[in-house]
Amino acid sequence: SRGLGDVYKRQMYVNGIKVGTPEFTQTDNDNTVWRTATISASLKKGTNLFELKANASSAGDLYLDNIVIER
Predict the structure, then answer these.
(1) Closest CA to 20 of 40, 3, 48, 36
(2) pTM for the structure as a whole
């Protein structure tokens, strides 16, 4: 069972290319603690596809509040 402080790893893909493995640390349920994970990737002009993929060793729920894309 997973709990507070556990780390969830996901593989991040942009346009089908793996760009990193961000780590998401489990927070408590009172919604006052926020965590960030940063990944840098090159984007192409136009539409880009972003995917977070889990494997068997990183299974578990992941709730994202927002995703920020900066230039």
Answers:
(1) 40
(2) 0.74
